[in-house]
Design goal:
By secondary structure, this protein is mainly α. 63% of the residues lie in helices and 5% in strands.
């Protein structure tokens, strides 16, 4: 009985000692106390956790506080706006040039000699911009389907009917064949020489009127433009492959609808050179037509651009 009582007392003492040890854990001072706390997962020291939280709050400000948010917004506002990417600038310039070319094309489509004959492929501007391939094709087609172009074909057919130099025969049938052949000649030459080939070779098919200087200088310039033209990108002068090859190609196509006596390689080259010569005469006419219009009809097709060019060069208009 006494032995059992002793055993019970010893057990109670052991329990009391273990409880006292758990109530007061031994934590080393300084940073090592966190290691000790981690080694005792079953013990939660709320006072130490509160102290650690206070220390962290003092060392690092809260990211969600109004002060930090305001400082971040101020720093973002203080930064200058970034410039647009450099890659977008050429695109914008290309759009501006395309729009300017469209405006100049609309202006050219209003040009007519004596208010009748189309003069769409002539530019009176010294600041004319280059055209895109589609714009060249559209301008050439616009000239080809103009009603006056059809009328000129019938006039040419009448001339050949009177001369009987194409062996199409007499009568309405022969006259219609001559008119169709004349129109196809004009259509092929215009579309090839002013549209397709300039688009492929990146050449400007328009006649850029000089409008100032001596008459001799202007005459030589007009003749030369049948053999030289402006490059799209550099705006420098180069051989006018589009015009010459277009005239020869249209002459080759004409072998398909002209009688055998009016076809062949030799005649193709000859006809191409004849068309080139006709284009040269047309350029000379376009160079001096505004001068004639101002003197005879008191109308200025250039809308004062000749006067500006002559004043800039110190010369008087319409004088050598």
């Amino acid at each position: 009985m006494v032995k059992n009582v002793r055993i019970c007392l010893l057990t109670l003492a052991a329990l009391a000692l273990s409880t006292a040890l758990r109530a007061e854990p031994i934590n080393p001072p300084g940073p090592d106390r966190h290691l000790a706390a981690a080694a005792e997962p079953s013990t939660i020291n709320w006072a130490r956790l509160a102290e650690d939280a206070d220390e962290m709050a003092q060392q690092t400000p809260a990211s969600g506080s109004p002060g930090s948010t305001a400082s971040q917004a101020a720093s973002q506002t203080a930064q200058p706006p970034s410039a647009p990417p450099a890659a977008t600038q050429p695109v914008a310039q290309e759009k501006d040039q395309h729009q300017k070319a469209e405006e100049q094309i609309k202006e050219q489509e209003q040009q007519r000699v004596l208010g009748v004959v189309p003069s769409f492929n002539v530019s009176y501007r010294s600041d004319a911009v280059s055209l895109t391939g589609m714009q060249k094709m559209r301008l050439a087609f616009r000239s080809s389907v103009d009603p006056v172009t059809f009328g000129i074909a019938f006039v040419v057919a009448g001339y050949h009917e009177a001369d009987n130099d194409l062996n199409f025969g007499w009568g309405i049938k022969g006259y219609g064949q001559r008119a169709g052949a004349a129109y196809l000649d004009a259509f092929d030459g215009t579309m090839l020489g002013n549209g397709i080939l300039p688009a492929l070779l990146h050449q400007d098919p328009r006649y850029f009127r000089l409008g100032h200087g001596s008459k001799t200088h202007r005459l030589g310039y007009a003749i030369a433009t049948s053999f030289i033209c402006k490059r799209d990108s550099t705006r420098t002068w180069e051989p006018n492959y589009s015009n010459i090859l277009g005239n020869i190609a249209s002459g080759a196509i004409s072998n398909l609808y002209y009688p055998n006596s009016n076809s062949g390689f030799g005649l193709t080259i000859t006809n191409g050179m004849i068309v080139t010569a006709e284009g040269t005469l047309g350029a000379v006419f376009q160079e001096f037509w505004p001068d004639v219009s101002r003197k005879l009809f008191h109308k200025d097709p250039t809308h004062g651009r000749d006067a500006q060019a002559n004043s800039a060069t110190g010369q008087k208009a319409d004088q050598p």
